Amino acid sequence: MTPKSRASRASSRGDGEALLRLAVFEADATPPLGHPLCGGSVPPARRIVDRLSARGLVLIP
Fold this sequence. Notes:
The protein is built from no helices and three strands. It is mainly β.
């Protein structure tokens, strides 16, 4: 997996204190060729048709 991330702050107070931090991420979640998928209950990956990606965000108090 190759994660990429960045974070920013959001504030609604005039004093500059952050109320929440927001972290976003993106990662390539494609299993490697030959990997025993689903704990071995599915035949190992032999080719990559479409890469899998994981994207999300986290709110940090």
